[in-house]
Write a structure and sequence with these properties.
The complex is a heterodimer of chains A (768) and B (121).
Chain A: H1 3-30, H2 36-55, H3 59-76, H4 84-104, H5 112-126, E1 177-185, H6 187-191, H7 196-206, E2 208-214, E3 232-238, H8 242-249, E4 257-266, E5 286-287, H9 289-293, H10 306-326, H11 371-397, H12 405-428, E6 429-431, H13 433-436, H14 439-450, E7 454-459, E8 464-466, H15 467-471, H16 474-488, H17 492-497, E9 504-513, E10 516-523, H18 530-539, H19 551-555, H20 579-588, E11 592-598, E12 602-610, E13 615-623, E14 626-631, E15 635-639, E16 646-649, E17 653-658, E18 661-667, H21 668-671, E19 685-690, E20 696-701, E21 703-711, H22 715-718, E22 725-730, E23 736-740, H23 742-757
Parallel strand pairs in A: 7-9, 14-23, 18-20
Antiparallel strand pairs in A: 1-3, 1-4, 2-3, 2-5, 6-8, 9-10, 10-12, 11-12, 13-14, 13-21, 15-19, 16-17, 17-18, 19-20, 22-23
Helix pairs in contact in A: 1-2, 1-4, 2-3, 3-4, 3-5, 4-5, 11-12, 14-16, 16-20
Chain B: E1 4-8, H1 12-24, E2 28-32, H2 35-44, E3 49-53, H3 61-70, E4 79-83, H4 88-97, E5 101-104, H5 109-119
Parallel strand pairs in B: 1-2, 1-3, 3-4, 4-5
Helix pairs in contact in B: 2-3
The chains are: A alpha+beta (768), B alpha/beta (121).
C-alpha cells in the first residue's frame, strides 16, 4: 500500500479511538464527574482529529473540528462552564464529528443542515467570542498574520521595492539585487539552540554572501562568559528572492536578535555603508560563508573527553591573546569560541533529569500486529494441540509406563501447549468496551426520535472476549437496545403516571459466566405485554389457538420470524428486521439469546456467547459407536443412573431423579438419530448438564472416554448446520468428532416431549 | 551517520507522517507518545533534533521543552514545535520554554524537512 494511504488508514483508526475518548470524556463531564484533565483530554481528541484531517486535506472535517475545538478551548480556559446544557451540545457535536469522519472515509454522508445548526450552537456557546470563529472564515491552516507577517513556512512572495530612486536601481540588468543585513544575536537566541552559522548557511542557499564579523565587543578572556553573545555580523547578499526570503531565514530568531535588512542595489560591490540600527565599526576582514560554516564545532566539547576540552581552551586562550594584542582589530571568527557553545557540563550536572524509568508510557509498550498473523498463529497452535494429543495417545498405546521419562516429558509438553494456547487466545481477547462505547450515541438518537427520556448505564465494559466475537456483537446489541427503548420503555408521561421516574434506564452489562460471556440488555419499562404477544402470534398463525404457553415461552415468541409487536412500524426498530434476526446472528456466533420479563418492571435480554471461537474444553463420550464431545462448561456432574431413579414419562420420554428433583433425560443417541427404538435408560452414563437458560437436563451416553481440550472446527463452514451439533473437532487419533450443542439437544427433546404429550397442533416452533 | 530525530506526538497519525517524511529524507527517527515519554526516551537515546507537539497528555510540549533544556546534554539540541495552533501566544510560550523553531500543521514533507535542515547543524 502507498505509505500515505497506510497512514490515512491509521488516521481513521485513530479517529475511532479519539471519537470514543471524546464521547466517554463528555459523558463523564455530563455526569458531573471529570476534572480539568478530562476537559483537556476531550480537547486533545478533537484537536488531533483536526490535525490529522488537515494533513490529508479533509476540509469539511477540519472546518467542523475547528469550530468544535474552539468551543472546547473556551471550556478548557474556564470561560465556558462544563454545565450539562453545554456538554449536551458537545455530545451532539461529537456525533456530527463522527459523521464527518465517516464521510471523509467515504462511508455515509453528513447531514449538512444538522452540521450547520450545530456549528451555530457551538458558536452560541462561545458567546461574545463567536464572531472570531465564524465557520465561513475558518481556513485550513491557521495562518493568521503574525506580527511579522510570516506566521508560516509558506514562502510568501513579497514585492520588493528596490530603492525606488534612480541611484539605487540596478545599473546592470543582469546583476541581482543586493541586500545588506545587520545581525546581532542575543544570548537568548543561542539558549534556544539557534546558531548563527546555520542562519548564514541558509542565507548562502538563497544567494551569494559576503559575511563580515564584528568581534569588537569580545571582552578579555577573564571576563568572557562563554554563553554570552558578543558578536555581530554584517552580511551582503546578492539574491533575487527578495526581502521576504531573507526575513524568513531569521523567522525563528527575530525576537532574539537585532536585525536590519536593507536593499543596497545591484552587485555585491555596490553596497554602501548603511545606517543600520546598531553601529558597526569598520568591518573587519571579510569572510565568506563556507569558511564560517566550517568553523570548528565547538559544541562537541560537552561530550568530548578532557583532552578535547583542553585543546579548545588552549585555542580560545590563543585567540584571546591575539585579540588583546591586536585590539581593536577584530578576531577571525574561526578562532573565537562560539558564543552559543554550552560549557562542558559540570560533573554535578551530568546526571540527566529523567525521572523514574518505571513510569513507562503504556502506549509505548503495545504493538500493532496484523490480525492475519495472529490468526495464523492461532491456527498453528490449534494444530499443535491436536498433534500433542495424538502423540500422547500413541505413547499411551505403546504401553510405556506412566512414570517413564517420555510420559513425564509429554505431560510437561501438554502444560506448555495449553499455556501457549491460552496466551495466544489472550492476544485476540479485547474488552467489550469498543462495542459498548458505540451505544450511548445510539441511545441518544433513538431517545430523540421516540421522544423518550433514556439514561444508559453500562457495567463490565472491561470484560474481555475474542475479537471476532466483539466484531459481530455490535449488530445484535444495537438491535436489542433499539428494541429496549422503542418497545420496552414507556413515554415519560405514562411512566410518571405509573409512579416511575420520567427518565427510563437501559442497562448494558457484560460478565463472564462459566466460560462464556453473558451480555444483558435490561430496561425498566413496562415489560412484555404477554396477552398482546400471544394475540399477535395467534393472528399471524405462529401458534395454535389452543396452545398453552408458560410465561417464558410466551416471552420467547418475540424471537419467531415474522413477529413484530409495534402497532405502527416505527422508524427505529421496525425496519422489517425482527428479534428473529438478532437470534440468528447470535446463534451464528455459537451463542444464545433469551428474555425474561417482569410486567410493569421491565425486561432483560440475555445474550450468552463463547469467549473464543477456537478452542473448547470437552468431555469425550461414546454414543452408539460414535465419538462425541460435550462442552465441559455445561457439565455439572456425571452419574450412573439407577433403575429406581428413572421415571418414564409418555411413550418415549423419561425423567431422572437427582437429589429430590426431576430432570428430563435426553437420549443423545436417539436425538441424533444414531439409533432407533426404545431406550434402555439404565445402561450407560448420564451427564448432568445445565443449559444457558438455567434449566437442567441429563444426557444419556454410552461411556465417558476422557476429558480433552479440542480445537473447534466449524461444521457450518465445512459441511452444514446440524441441529444439536455445535461444531466438530479432530481428535488425537485423527478422527473427526462432533461437539454437542447442549441447549439445542434439550430443546429438541422438549419439542419431542410436547409433540408426544399434546396433539401435533400445539407444535411450537420455538427452536429454529 | 545519519542524524537522529526524536518526534514527540500523541497522535499516531502524526507520528507516522513524521516517520515517513523524515525517513525518506534520510534521518533516523525515534518516537515518543507524550512529553513524559519523550524525556524517558531521551534518557536512553541521543537525539540531534527534536520535534514535539504541544497538546499532549501527561506532559505537554512546553513542559517537555523545559525538561529537555534542563538536561545539560540537550541544552543545545534544536527543538521544533509542531502544532496546528499558529497563534502568537503559543509560539511565544514555546519559544520562552526554549524552542528553537516551529512547524505549522498541516505541513508538507518539503516544509518539514526544510525546517529540520534549518536548525540542524
Amino acid at each position: 500500500m502507498d505509505p500515505l494511504e497506510a497512514i490515512k488508514a491509521t488516521f481513521f483508526q485513530e479517529c475511532d479511538e479519539l471519537l470514543a475518548d471524546l464521547e466517554s470524556g463528555l459523558l463523564e463531564l455530563e455526569g458531573g464527574g471529570g476534572d480539568m484533565e478530562t476537559v483537556n483530554a476531550v480537547f486533545r481528541a478533537v484537536h488531533s482529529v483536526k490535525g490529522g484531517a488537515g494533513a490529508f486535506g479533509l476540509e469539511p472535517l477540519v472546518r467542523f473540528a475547528h469550530v468544535f475545538e474552539t468551543t472546547l478551548d473556551e471550556m478548557r480556559s474556564g470561560r465556558l462552564a462544563t454545565e450539562p446544557a453545554a456538554v449536551k451540545v458537545m455530545l451532539r457535536a461529537a456525533d456530527v464529528l463522527a459523521d464527518h469522519v465517516s464521510a471523509a472515509r467515504g462511508q455515509g454522508v453528513v447531514d449538512e443542515a444538522g452540521s450547520v445548526r450545530l456549528v451555530g450552537e457551538l458558536k452560541a456557546l462561545c458567546g461574545g467570542g463567536a464572531a472570531e470563529i465564524g465557520g465561513d472564515e475558518v481556513v485550513m491552516v491557521d495562518t493568521e498574520v503574525e506580527d511579522d507577517g510570516f506566521g508560516d513556512f509558506d514562502f510568501t512572495p513579497v514585492i520588493v521595492e528596490i530603492g525606488g530612486s534612480a541611484e539605487a536601481a540596478p545599473l546592470d540588468p543582469s546583476a541581482l539585487p543586493t541586500w545588506r543585513i545587520g545581525f546581532k544575536p542575543s544570548r537568548a537566541m543561542y539558549a534556544k539552540a539557534n546558531e548563527t552559522a546555520l542562519l548564514l548557511r541558509e542565507l548562502d542557499r538563497i544567494g551569494a554572501c559576503q559575511v563580515t564579523l564584528n568581534a569588537d565587543n569580545l571582552p578579555d578572556f577573564d571576563a568572557l562568559d562563554p554563553e554570552e553573545s558578543y558578536f555581530s555580523w554584517v552580511i551582503d547578499i546578492e539574491t533575487d528572492q527578495g526581502e521576504g526570503a531573507i526575513r524568513e531565514v531569521f523567522e525563528f530568531v527575530e525576537d532574539d536578535c537585532e536585525i536590519a535588512v536593507e536593499a543596497t542595489g545591484a552587485g555585491v560591490g555596490a553596497a554602501a555603508p548603511l545606517d543600520v540600527p546598531f553601529s558597526f565599526d569598520a568591518p573587519s576582514e571579510p569572510l565568506d560563508t563556507p569558511a564560517l560554516v566550517a568553523a570548528p564545532e565547538a559544541e562537541a566539547a560537552p561530550a568530548a573527553p578532557d583532552s578535547d576540552v583542553m585543546a579548545l581552551l588552549e585555542r580560545a586562550k590563543l585567540a584571546a591573546a591575539e585579540i588583546q594584542a591586536t585590539a581593536p582589530v577584530s578576531a577571525p571568527a574561526p578562532a573565537a569560541p562560539r558564543a552559543a557553545t554550552p560549557p562542558p557540563p559540570p560533573p554535578a550536572a551530568a546526571t540527566h533529569p529523567a525521572d523514574g524509568g518505571d513510569a513507562k508510557a503504556s502506549a509505548g509498550t503495545t504493538i500493532r500486529v496484523d490480525l492475519e498473523r495472529v490468526d495464523r498463529l492461532i491456527d498453528l497452535v490449534g494444530e499443535l494441540v491436536i498433534n500433542q494429543a495424538m502423540l500422547t495417545q500413541r505413547v499411551g498405546e505403546s504401553g510405556l509406563a506412566r512414570s517413564s521419562t517420555v510420559s513425564v516429558g509429554l505431560e510437561d509438553l501438554e502444560h506448555l501447549t495449553r499455556e501457549i494456547q491460552d496466551s495466544v487466545m489472550a492476544i485476540r481477547a479485547q474488552p467489550v468496551k469498543s462495542v459498548f462505547q458505540r451505544m450511548p450515541r445510539l441511545v441518544r438518537e433513538v431517545a430523540a426520535m421516540t421522544g423518550k427520556q433514556v439514561r444508559l448505564t453500562t457495567e463490565g465494559e472491561n470484560t474481555e472476549v475474542d475479537k471476532t466475537v466483539i466484531e459481530r456483537l455490535s449488530d445484535p446489541l444495537i438491535h436489542m437496545i433499539r428494541n429496549a427503548i422503542d418497545h420496552g420503555l414507556e413515554k415519560p408521561e405514562i411512566r410518571v403516571a405509573a409512579g416511575k421516574p420520567a427518565e427510563g434506564v437501559v442497562k448494558l452489562c457484560a460478565l463472564h459466566r462459566s466460560g462464556r460471556i453473558v451480555i444483558e440488555v435490561s430496561d425498566d419499562g413496562a415489560g412484555i405485554n404477554r396477552e398482546r404477544v400471544k394475540q399477535i402470534a395467534l393472528d399471524k398463525g405462529l401458534i395454535a389457538p389452543d396452545a398453552t404457553l408458560t410465561d417464558e415461552e410466551t416471552d420467547n415468541l418475540i424471537f419467531l420470524p415474522g413477529f413484530s409487536t409495534a402497532a405502527t412500524v416505527s422508524d427505529i426498530s421496525g425496519r422489517g428486521v425482527g428479534m428473529d434476526v438478532v437470534r440468528r446472528q447470535v446463534q451464528a456466533l455459537g451463542g444464545r439469546i433469551s428474555i425474561t420479563s417482569n410486567p410493569g418492571k421491565g425486561s432483560t435480554f440475555s445474550l450468552s456467547l463463547p469467549l473464543t471461537l477456537a478452542v473448547l474444553d470437552g468431555m469425550v463420550v461414546g454414543v452408539s459407536g460414535h465419538t462425541l464431545v460435550t462442552p465441559l462448561t455445561a457439565i455439572i456432574e456425571t452419574l450412573q443412573p439407577k433403575t429406581n431413579d428413572v421415571r418414564l414419562l409418555g411413550p418415549n420420554g423419561a425423567v431422572l431423579a437427582v437429589r429430590d428433583a426431576y430432570v428430563p433425560l435426553v437420549d443423545v443417541g436417539a436425538v441424533l438419530g444414531y439409533r432407533k427404538g426404545e431406550t434402555d435408560w439404565t445402561t450407560g452414563v448420564v451427564l448432568l448438564v445445565e443449559s444457558e437458560v438455567g434449566g437442567r437436563a441429563a444426557l444419556l451416553v454410552d461411556a465417558i472416554q476422557g476429558q480433552r481440550q479440542v480445537v473447534i472446527k466449524s461444521l457450518e463452514a465445512n459441511y452444514q448446520r446440524v441441529e444439536g451439533i455445535a461444531a466438530a473437532t479432530i481428535l488425537g487419533d485423527g478422527r473427526v468428532a462432533l461437539i454437542l450443542d447442549v441447549d439445542a439437544l434439550i430443546d429438541v427433546r422438549r419439542k419431542d416431549a410436547r409433540r408426544s404429550a399434546a396433539p401435533p397442533a400445539a407444535r411450537l416452533p420455538l427452536a429454529s | 551517520m545519519s542524524k537522529t530525530v526524536l518526534t514527540v506526538d500523541d497522535s499516531r497519525t502524526m507520528r507516522d507522517m513524521l516517520m515517513l517524511t523524515l525517513k525518506n529524507a534520510g534521518y533516523r527517527v525515534v518516537q515518543a507518545v507524550d512529553g513524559a515519554h519523550g524525556l524517558e526516551v531521551l534518557a536512553g537515546e541521543n537525539a540531534d533534533i527534536i520535534i514535539t507537539d504541544i497538546n499532549m497528555p501527561r506532559l505537554d510540549g512546553f513542559g517537555f521543552i523545559e525538561g529537555v533544556r534542563q538536561d545539560p546534554r540537550h541544552r543545545a539540541t534544536p527543538i521544533l514545535v509542531l502544532t496546528t495552533e499558529s497563534d502568537g501566544e503559543k509560539k511565544t510560550r514555546a519559544r520562552n520554554a526554549g524552542a528553537t523553531g516551529w512547524i505549522v500543521k498541516p505541513f508538507n514533507p518539503d516544509k518539514l524537512v526544510d525546517a529540520v535542515r534549518r536548525v540542524a547543524a
